[in-house]
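Our preliminary data section would be incomplete without showing what the modeling component actually yields. Below, a chain of 285 amino acids is followed by its predicted structure, encoded as tokens that our downstream tools consume directly.
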Amino acid sequence: WYARWRPVEYTVHLHLGDDDAYGQHKASIEQDGQALPLAPDGHFDLPYTVEDELSLPTVTDDPTVPKPVREGMSFVGWAESAAAIAKGLREANEAADAHLNSNTISQNQVVAVWRDAYQRFKTKKGARCSVENLLKRVLKGNPVGSITPSVDIYNTVSLKYALPVGGEDIDAMEGDIRLGLTEGGDAFRALGEEEDAPTLEGELCYRDDAGAICRCWNWRDGQRTALSDDSEKAFLIIESVDPARADDLQAAIDELASLVEQHLGATVFAKKVVTADDPTMVIDE
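Predicted structure:
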């Protein structure tokens, strides 16, 4: 399923001063070279949109730390969302311990089922399920830290439920996205790399008409379809290979949808559990 981000629109009500002062010293306000209409008492309403590339200051939930401001206006709601996301990630790191009954990462059930799944297709040496990499950090006492609000949210869900969660930019895809075995040679460049690394014959991967999107199932994302601050449509996916955890999968899907709606202002277009018996869904209009 995916979520569509929408801009936040505001209207600022400004006043140039008291009525008498305005009558004696008239001022003009211009926007894009055109004078804005002013009311007789000197006030005007200016609509504006907060663009998605706006960067918010780092915030905490410490009440002694002042709320961030931008050009004299306090974005209290956004600050509180950022603090809530940070708090959720910290709590999820702690909750992940409940899934780790052994100090050997591969002996924990939530990891063992994925190790078994990865034995059933061709993989690049050392490739592992994404949730194993997160849980390994928790096991070593190195909690998963903050990256971006959207990534923090799906890492929170991944840690809490011990299920792999990922995201891709729909607008960067070409044609339909599908999961299947490949004949090899699909174009791919991993995040953070400078060289191409095409898929292997018999590898299970996500791909579209232009090449691979995520290699070795959910091991590594590619640069071409990676989510960014400019992304407007996101394909977010949670995976499970353990039929006994069907309820956990549904709970994780519902929580992820709720979090992106609440903290990122997203609109959920569709959400669905895709199975072998019902293998397709529409993710965009």
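Residues 105 and 145 are 20 Å apart (CA to CA). Helices lie at 19-24, 76-95, 109-118, 130-139, 149-161, 246-264. Preliminary results of this kind motivate Aim 1 of the renewal.
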